[in-house]
Amino acid sequence: MTTIGTTLVIGATGTTGSRVVSRLAARGHGVKAASRRATAVDDARSVRSVRFDWDDPTTYDDALTGVDRVYLIPPLGSTEPAAIMLPFLERARAAGVRRAVLLSSSAIPAGGPATGQVHQALPGLFDEWAVLRPSWFMQNLTGDTPHARSIAADGTILTATGEGRVGFVDADDIAAVAVHALTDEQAPNTDLVITGPEALSYGDIAAVLTRLTGRQVTHHPLTYEQLRDRLAAAIPAEYAALLAGLDRAIADGAEDRTTDTVQRLTGRPPRAFRAFAERELTRSAG
Q1: What percent of the chain has pLDDT above 90?
Q2: Which of 64, 167, 186, 236 is close enough to 135 for a disulfide, judged by CB 3.0 to 4.6 Å?
């Protein structure tokens, strides 16, 4: 049994946020779709668009009015999101929000860096909560992402992961878990590590793409320092070091695991990378 309420979805135009909005609306739940630029939506789906900017507290009150749960996408690129998020969550609790679901990462435990600080604080703020800790998104290899661009440009995937393996997960499966965490009568009140059905190295990923496209794709390994410096050309040095460090952890085996979270919460198995890639190739061909 699930409950019907109104959910504030922060980052509603993003990779998981847009999927959460669609799934909630399809199930008849009221949604406030929050993004920096509020856009028109179909009111027949009980979705209202609202402007929200983590860096602008004047947008908070309108976003929080009339909602009883919130899906939290942290401020992008921030190495210390707790400084912004915790005051907002205090305000959310005072405004009547009773359930909070945070998108974090499989690489970051409670009390760890970045969203780990928000994760640690969440149970003390809300009686109903969950922290989603997905592994690396399959979508990181498609669209207008760095990996997709390098694959398109010269058939290479550049990482500092070595032969380390990752339980890559489809954002559709993350969104499905998020909706259950937001709407099930009993809140998870725990963290949920979300993976796909298999752990793959980037070499494995390159081999799948080669077979499906008929074009040679290879994994080109970098050192931690090479990746850090490459990233720092486009993003702040501290954040570049954090991301490169995550690759180094993969090389050491930190992400070589799979979980039953998707199957257990949604009743269906998570999508495998080959099926994901076939779907994306079909979409791009269309």
Answers
A1: 89
A2: 167
